[in-house]
Design goal:
28% of the residues lie in helices and 23% in strands. The protein is α+β, with helices and mostly antiparallel strands. The longest helix has 18 residues. It is globular. Catalyzes the first step in the biosynthesis of ornithine lipids, which are phosphorus-free membrane lipids. Catalyzes the 3-hydroxyacyl-acyl carrier protein-dependent acylation of ornithine to form lyso-ornithine lipid (LOL).
Length: 278
């Protein structure tokens, strides 16, 4: 794939391209048609491939959608050699804090207690910047390579720099809801990545599932890394924290954990991701 070209000017204009590499362009959805194409891609990945349970209306329309789609930005990767819905090959849903009335209006608040995000220790780390919730990430099967993910993340870096974002967060999923199959990877995440207590984001009490099934010194714990979903493994590599407690999502047939990644920590641990972005 050709070397990416990064754009840092005019990003608030409709259709502004964030990153371009060969036939691949990454920008925000600029029309209802493009949003519908993203929803169709999400339906293909989440419901047809991963066997989530659609509502009757979703199944009829062949789209994954909810009310959050109306207030989010939708970061899309396009293959410009394709046309129509086939041109949309990857998507990430982005919800900035400044677009909602309070942290209780983030998608994540349906599963996790975000109250610490409003307290001084958390806000001190944010240094006057805003939070950004990431969600509904997926890539068309034929394009599932590190190159596409890397380009999407380069575009996210452009976005968070432009909008002065201090942290990224959201729900990330482990496949399956049978707790026994996930006890080892959940324990691994708990012991290696758990958030500090003063900024912890726990699962809601009524949905809380324990994560520390094995002790930190369990000799088989290190083997759990390979059992993590690629998305979760990717966040861990970037320097994320994991909130305390998992949540079972029956609709998507997953067990969710809370991902928290401070921008300063991301930049410190992965300075190369910010090359060319000021």
């Amino acid at each position: 794939m050709a070397r990416e070209k990064i754009n840092m000017s005019g990003l608030d204009k409709p259709g502004a391209i964030f990153v371009k590499a060969g036939d691949i362009e990454i920008r925000l959805a600029n029309s209802e048609t493009e949003l519908l194409a993203a929803q169709k891609l999400r339906y293909q990945v989440f419901y047809k491939e991963m066997h989530a349970k659609p509502t009757g209306e979703m199944e009829k329309l062949g789209r994954d959608y909810d009310d959050f789609d109306l207030v989010c930005d939708h970061l899309l990767a396009f293959d410009t050699s394709k046309t129509g819905d086939d041109a949309v090959i990857a998507t990430y849903r982005l919800l900035r804090e400044e677009k909602i009335d309070g942290i209780q209006n983030f998608y994540s608040s349906q599963e996790f207690d975000l109250s610490n995000m409003d307290k001084k220790p958390f806000r001190d780390r944010m240094a006057g910047r805003q939070g950004l919730e990431l969600g509904r990430s997926c890539v068309r099967e034929a394009y599932r390579s590190n190159n596409i993910i890397q380009l999407m993340w380069k575009a996210i870096i452009v976005y968070i720099t432009h909008h002065k974002v201090g942290c990224l967060f959201g729900c990330a999923s482990l496949a399956g809801v049978i707790q026994g199959d996930l006890e080892l990877p959940l324990s691994y995440l708990y012991h290696k990545y758990k958030t500090p207590d003063d900024i912890n984001i726990p699962a809601l009490p009524e949905r809380f599932q324990k994560m520390d099934y094995y002790p930190a010194d369990y000799e088989g714990l290190s083997k759990a890394k390979r059992q993590l979903a690629p998305l979760v493994r990717g966040y861990a590599a970037l320097g994320c924290y994991i909130g305390d407690g998992a949540v079972i999502d029956e609709q998507f047939n997953t067990t969710d954990v809370f991902i928290l990644l401070f921008t300063d920590r991301l930049r410190e641990r992965n300075p190369q991701m910010f090359d060319g972005i000021e």
